[in-house]
Write a structure and sequence with these properties.
Layout lengths: L9 H9 L2 E6 L1 H5 L19 H4 L2 H6 L1 H16 L5 H12 L2 E6 L5 H5 L6 E4 L2 E8 L5 E2 L19 E5 L8 H13 L2 E5 L11 H7 L3 E6 L11 E4 L2 H13 L2
The structure holds 2'-O-acetyl adenosine-5-diphosphoribose.
């Protein structure tokens, strides 16, 4: 059921019609309607016996590089079948509508880029990208390697294992992207937190940094999160439904 335009607070509609600097933080919930399971969803099939937090760590990779590499191959195959959904495309439309728009994503699936985000505005990938790979030892991006018969390929330079270029638990985020995200949050007039449980730092602090610098914070999520009680507006529902309806409410059909 698509939310009617009148369901949005008039003050929010008025603010979006006049403000200039919008920052959006997205999480796995934005890709859920494309068929990509979120992190808090139970995993399916063979992988249901594993906890992502037991697989997405440097320690897990050192213990069993083939298992972790195969888990990412399974996720890449699943994501390769996913297409951007109405929520992704609505964010591309928002990018076009605001003079200053920055999209910060925790997602590693490239669905924002596939929809067209990042063409006319900044797109910051806080947690890396599952389609990029790097040497576990040198940390340098790798685009080709020799197949060795093992599942996890080897770096052609140093012989170390190849790993996905995504941030694992117990790892720090890429400093350049994190600094840009902090600066964007501080300058934003409206900060959207969409499809994220707000449980993982430092991304979960970004809406609070924005709020401390005077931004209006809007949460879009079907469920309650720790941010729900602090956000200026909570739009309870699916991103793929709420975002297109919000665009219609602010700028007309
Ligand atoms: P989670 O799986 O923790 O949370 C997904 C959120 O999206 C939940 O609050 C859901 O209620 C919500 N949701 C589900 N379907 C939705 C929809 N159609 N529209 C809007 N919201 C929806 O995923 P993240 O918050 O992204 O970190 O997780 C943050 C980080 O934790 C991930 O980036 C990953 C994980 O560990 C790394 O990989 C480093």
């Amino acid at each position: 059921m698509k939310p009617a335009a009148c369901e949005f607070p008039l003050a929010l509609i008025g603010l979006l019609q006049t403000c200039e600097f919008i920052v959006v933080l997205t999480g796995a919930g934005v890709s859920a309607e494309s068929g990509v399971p979120t992190f808090r969803d139970a995993q399916t099939g063979f992988w249901s016996q594993f906890d992502p937090q037991e697989l997405a760590t440097p320690q897990a990779f050192q213990r069993n590089p083939d298992l972790v590499w195969n888990w990412y191959e399974w996720r890449r195959e699943l994501i390769s079948r996913a297409k951007p959904n109405a929520g992704h495309y609505a964010l591309v439309e928002m990018e076009r509508r605001f003079p200053d728009f920055i999209l910060i994503t925790q997602n590693v699936d490239s669905l924002h880029q596939q929809a067209g985000s990042g063409k006319s505005a900044e797109l910051i990938e806080l947690h890396g990208n599952i389609w990029r790979n790097k040497c576990f030892i040198e940390n340098a991006i790798l685009t080709k390697w020799d197949e060795t018969g093992e599942a996890a390929p080897r770096c052609p330079r140093c012989g170390g294992f190849v790993r996905p270029d995504v941030v694992w638990f117990n790892e720090s985020l890429p400093q350049v992207e994190l600094t840009r995200a902090w600066q964007a949050a501080q300058k934003s007039q409206v900060f959207f937190s969409i499809g994220t449980s707000g449980l993982v730092q430092p991304a979960a602090s970004l809406p609070y940094i924005a709020q401390q610098h005077g931004a209006v914070v809007v949460e879009i999520n079907p469920d309650t999160t720790p941010l729900s009680r602090d956000a200026s507006y909570v739009l309870r529902g699916f991103a793929g439904k709420i975002l297109p309806a919000l665009i219609e409410a602010v700028w007309g059909a």
